[in-house]
Design goal:
The protein contains no helices and seven strands. The protein has about 80 residues and is an all-beta fold. Strand 2 and strand 3 form a beta hairpin. The protein is globular, with a radius of gyration of 12 Å.
């Protein structure tokens, strides 16, 4: 398995506005690494901190759980 370091900014390919899920991450990649495919979307939630909404996605990558977070203010993604 890959070592998914915490709190790292990543590039995410996501599908927006698909059926009942408004956003679904499909793949992600850290700088200098190969693209990693999301196997399954497990859960989603939204957390508000002040006026910023953080969209949180629990996903499976192979057999490993990874949490991706989307910051609605600066439109960045990170692994948490």
């Amino acid at each position: 398995m890959k070592n998914f370091n915490k709190n790292k900014t990543v590039e995410v390919m996501a599908l927006f506005g698909y059926e009942m899920t408004p956003c679904q991450p499909l793949t992600f990649r850290r700088r200098g690494e190969e693209e990693t495919e999301v196997t399954e979307l497990l859960a989603t939630q939204i957390r508000f901190v002040g006026d910023v909404a953080f969209h949180i996605f629990d996903v499976l990558v192979g057999r490993e759980k990874v949490r991706l977070e989307f910051n609605s203010r600066d439109l960045s993604w990170r692994i948490v």
